[in-house]
Amino acid sequence: DMWGRVRKQAPKSSVNGLLAEMIAKFEEEPPLGTKSSAQGDNPNNLLAYVSNLTLNEGGNRLDQEVKVSVIGGGDLGIAAVLSIMAKGCVDKLVLIDIPESSTKGGTTDLEIFGLPKVEVSKDLSASAGSKVVVITANAWSDEQSYLSVVQTNVDMYGGIIPRLAQLSPKAVLLIASQPVDVMTHVAWRQSHLLPTQVIGVGCNLDSERLSHIINISLVANSTGKQAWVIGELSENKVALWGNMGPGTDQLQALTPVSNSTKPLMDRALEMLKGRGQRSWSVGLSIADIIHSIVTDKKKIHSVTTLAEGWGGIGSKVFLSLPCILGENGSTRLPGVALGSEEEMKLRESVACQVNLFMQLRL
């Protein structure tokens, strides 16, 4: 019938689109109310159907149930759960506390008080069918050397990453374990997933903070510029500009910092140094990234990704770079020509990561 044709063709998330389709169809045929019962459905049935419709507002949602799993029950895992639920972008969230992690202890309280849509488990199989799997677990202690710390985390990942990838082969793995650049690389190797499916939280938090500072300083909304932090999550991180105004070609948006704007950028980066990365702030950053993935937002984030081929980088290393995030994972923006100081920092980060991987047992 006519209403059936309208429903099949109408956009799922646009009220205006639905109205436009209805108007067009009703102009083609007389209203249902003028027809006899033999000609079509009773108008009351139509009203009953409309009364049961639910409309999605503010961002596209994927048709299927959106499930996200968080691996690791420490402060960061709990912060991620609370932040993701506050964003309201998931239908089900699973928190899995694994015994190998040294960051444990918060899951009991979640079980005691309970949260709608949140399941607490100790079994990795509870993550099956996730759209995003967040890894917050760390297995190291403060007494270990840096190499031992990383190796302990690598060994822990070897026991969970292949299984998680098998349970959710279409998921995006979002890595928040430390050191995030190295552990994202490890997760990519161990999972055998596409590079677009394995990202780390990287410099997303620093980028959002830097952009906020620059916006206040420059009233960037009027200039259309946005600041980005890229590279290694360390003192070697690098700042870039993005021309993100309406109509801008995203793939041509990045530009290096010029001599005229470098003092402002240096000052903004200096202000960032006083801001630590607490569990709740990283949790908010995780939720920000997940929201862009599950709503297919196509927003640009600075996240840890495979850097090979970007700006002349020839090694298989993972660094934070601006990526467009959506339901299929990440799409890396092209490289840009950097100034000598910024390029030196990136080269140093690449060399350090390559040297570390030569010492690790994978």
Automatic annotation (TrEMBL):
Pfam families recorded: Ldh_1_C, Ldh_1_N
Domain Lactate/malate dehydrogenase N-terminal: 66-200
Gene Ontology MF: a single term: L-lactate dehydrogenase (NAD+) activity
UniProt cross-references to InterPro entries, sorted A to Z: L-lactate/malate_DH, Lactate/malate_DH_C, Lactate/malate_DH_N, Lactate_DH/Glyco_Ohase_4_C, NAD(P)-bd_dom_sf
GO biological process: lactate metabolic process
Keywords: Oxidoreductase
Family matches, as PANTHER family: L-2-HYDROXYCARBOXYLATE DEHYDROGENASE (NAD(P)(+)), UBIQUITIN-CONJUGATING ENZYME E2 VARIANT 3
Name of the featured protein: Ubiquitin-conjugating enzyme E2 variant 3-like
Organism: Sinocyclocheilus grahami (Dianchi golden-line fish)
Taxon lineage: Eukaryota, Metazoa, Chordata, Craniata, Vertebrata
